[in-house]
Write a structure and sequence with these properties.
two-stranded antiparallel sheet, globular, disordered N terminus
Length: about 400
């Protein structure tokens, strides 16, 4: 039965696909986009997706080099935490968020009862991703997914997403024409990748289909279902700003090191805005910009937010935004921080890589591996090991 579907898919897709450049700019495992797309049709058929969905979905897909160009030029996560959070957690978003919670109050009550995720967290992501559903993107999603799947940078990820988009069509949630969003292939008010849309989408308004673009109830509940599935802990905090003593052993500021709050209190860490409870709830100390920048205790729920987006800058900004909605004050600015530019970070990464450290990609972004390498070097050089690269460190190297 599977083989029969595969043969049918080749026939259907062959008649659908518009002529595209046989050798488009960029790097591809296969020379011809049309031939490659036929293979996607075969895989979709083998996964049990109907011929109608394959025909409709892949018939709408094109290769768009401008999408590849945008994918190569991303730099937003090379910003520092304060640069990113100042821009994204703007006053107007903080002011609008409580109104959104009131407007959708009954929906949020049902969501928290069913999934255990508070409104503040969902609204924070809602605001950061699409300005509370106002800006969801209007590009052709199927073209975005097909282009990124055909490209060589992340083909496995986006091939999976293209197949998931066909499943969404097959399930009857969206038509290809309704699949509109930003250039990277996400969809809806919470910017779900198609696989998350298909796996975690909730028909919360009860109209018989999952519509994360037009239905706020569906979108908000789906975000909660996703976070719940990742392990969100009902009734627990996620992030709290703190002050840290100047003589603190900075190498202990690491997401890998979790201690009861009572131990952080004993070490002289104090809460900002409200008292730090002296109890057994585990937390890690996060210094997104080193010892001279803002400091936070990150609770187990914070790690769930990192599953949503693995960028420390983004996840910390989202968590901080949620605390602001919950009544926390604006984050402390800290002292003088000699942060590196993206080019300087890339230079530092190159130097460390040549010395045998695993920094991940040399991309100008201070990711987890770069932070770990920086801490090792700081310890060897006798510097405060806060895992944050500065101009002083670069000069020493």
């Amino acid at each position: 039965m599977v083989f029969g579907k595969c043969i049918g898919a080749v026939t259907v897709v062959a008649g659908l696909i518009a002529v595209s450049p046989a050798h488009a700019a960029g790097c591809h495992k296969e020379r011809d986009f049309n031939s490659w797309l036929k293979g996607v049709g075969n895989e979709a058929a083998a996964a049990g997706i109907s011929q109608n969905a394959i025909q409709a979905g892949l018939g709408a897909a094109r290769f768009d080099q401008s999408i590849v160009d945008k994918d190569r030029s991303q730099g937003v996560f090379a910003q520092t935490f304060l640069q990113f959070s100042d821009r994204m957690v703007e006053k107007y978003r903080v002011n609008q968020a409580p109104g959104q919670i009131r407007k959708h109050g009954k929906t949020f009550q049902r969501i928290e009862q069913q999934f255990g995720v508070p409104a503040e967290i969902i609204v924070a992501f809602w605001g950061l991703e699409t300005d509370f559903g106002a800006v969801i993107g209007d590009g052709p999603t199927l073209t975005a997914l097909a282009t990124l799947a055909y490209d060589c940078r992340r083909p496995e990820l986006f091939r999976e997403q293209l197949i998931a988009a066909l499943k969404i069509i097959d399930r009857g949630d969206l038509t290809p024409a309704q699949m509109r969003g930003p250039w990277a292939g996400e969809m809806g008010q919470l910017q779900f990748l198609p696989s998350h849309y298909y796996d975690y989408g909730v028909d919360f308004d009860g109209n018989g289909r999952v519509d994360l673009l037009k239905s706020s109830a569906d979108a908000l509940a789906s975000a909660a279902k996703f976070l719940s599935a990742l392990g969100w802990r009902r009734g627990e905090p996620w992030l709290q700003e703190v002050k840290v003593p100047k003589d603190f052993p900075w190498e202990m500021a690491d997401l890998r090191f979790r201690f009861p709050r009572s131990e952080w209190v004993a070490a002289g860490v104090t809460g900002v805005g409200k008292k730090l409870p002296n109890d057994g709830l585990e937390a890690a100390l996060v210094l997104p910009m080193g010892r001279n920048g803002p400091a936070f205790l990150a609770y187990p729920n914070f790690y769930i937010l990192l599953e949503w987006n693995s960028s420390l800058v983004y996840a910390t900004s989202a968590a901080y935004f949620a605390t602001r909605i919950d009544g926390a004050p604006r984050v402390s600015r800290g002292g003088t921080i000699n942060s590196l530019s993206a080019k300087e970070v890339a230079r530092l990464q190159t130097i460390l890589a040549k010395r045998g450290y695993d920094v991940g990609k040399v991309d100008g972004i201070i990711g987890e591996k770069t932070r770990a390498a920086v801490k090792e070097v700081q310890l060897k050089l006798g510097m405060p090991a806060d895992s944050y690269p500065t101009k002083e460190l670069l000069a020493k190297l």
